[in-house]
Amino acid sequence: MAVLKIENVSKIFQGGTTAVDDLSLEVSDGELVCLLGPSGSGKSTLLRMVGGFERPTQGKIFIDEADITDQWPERRPTAMVFQSHALWSHMNVFKNVAFGLRLRGLPAAEIRQNVEGVLEMVGLAGYGKRMIHQLSGGQQQRVALARSLVLEPKILLLDEPFASLDQHLRERLREEVRDIQQRLKITTLFVTHGQDEALSMADRIVVMRDGRTEQIGRPDAVYRKPLTPFVAGFIGTMNLVEGQVMRGAFTRAGIRVPLPVADGPATLAVRPEALDLIAAEPGQAQVHRITDFGTHGIVDLELSDGTRLKSMATQPNALRPGQGVDLVPRALTVYRESREIYRDVHD
Ligand SMILES: Nc1ncnc2c1ncn2[C@@H]1O[C@H](COP(=O)(O)OP(=O)(O)OP(=O)(O)O)[C@@H](O)[C@H]1O
């Protein structure tokens, strides 16, 4: 049970790269916050500073009001699970998990009880005597998780822990980790590239860009109300169309969408599931391709200037490639100079 507070933290590496730029964030007790962003946006550096593996150039980090900014990693009440699990291959599972408790000098009986408890929690009861190389990738990642959890950290730090696993296993482990995290109520900071991972696991998502936070919010808010075109384009599939607003309507290559905003350049953002199609000849766009996923279809559309858009259709068979359609957005957001200027999203 702990609160993590990151206050105006920056990290400038030797050579001048600013990896994290004056970032502040508070993670509440028992909350799971995902750091999401493109490669190089500073996610791992931020996590490593919380774990004590990098020193901030500026700013402070607190756990429950205690300033830990200059504390050694092993003295911090944090535990980190890395993508490469860094297990000791010459030790069996039990010894790997018990290692941290041995360093702490716990009595053998207590170590045994704690290790067995945590192995059961991660689904590895009875695996204590197995050597690491006798385990699958997913099982190894479970050992890495157990090794962190057994230390009963106040803050759990996860750096893309499932990145090397196949999708099926990743989804399963994601659910299990979320269950364990909620059961133990561990305050958790989680780095991921995967928006699905962030949307399905997080209490809140921090979208990072160039070492700064672009948006912080609950998954549904970040998905439904992205504050900038960058967030809109980064989370989920989004049609982003640049055009002009003139005399009360957005236009671009045959599209015309009435909008109550001032004239000028604008970027229109519409999710595929919020873009309805009506058959029309010649129509504002042409159907390029239809992909039927069984439960729904994705219709790829082309505007007269070659711009591609996507629409999700529940009855894709009603359409055929080459036919004309008019576009009817049911929800949309409009940006100008990277700021939202209009939103029509039904709650
Ligand atoms: N030890 C280092 N020395 C110099 N520059 C570094 C160092 N570590 C990271 N960087 C730089 O800092 C920036 C942020 O890197 P970081 O690894 O935090 O990004 P990330 O968002 O975690 O990326 P990824 O998703 O690819 O892991 C990058 O430009 C990176 O090249």
TrEMBL record:
A Gene Ontology BP annotation from the UniProt entry: quaternary ammonium group transport
PANTHER family: SPERMIDINE/PUTRESCINE IMPORT ATP-BINDING PROTEIN POTA (PTHR42781), SPERMIDINE_PUTRESCINE IMPORT ATP-BINDING PROTEIN POTA (PTHR42781:SF4)
Keywords annotated in UniProt: ATP-binding, Nucleotide-binding, Transport
Lineage: Bacteria, Pseudomonadati, Pseudomonadota, Alphaproteobacteria, Hyphomicrobiales
Record's GO cellular component terms: ATP-binding cassette (ABC) transporter complex
Record-linked SUPFAM superfamilies: MOP-like (SSF50331), P-loop containing nucleoside triphosphate hydrolases (SSF52540)
Organism (species): Jiella flava
Protein name: ABC transporter ATP-binding protein
Domain named ABC transporter: residues: 4-235
Family recorded in the similarity comment: Belongs to the ABC transporter superfamily.
UniProt GO molecular function: ATP binding; ATP hydrolysis activity; transmembrane transporter activity
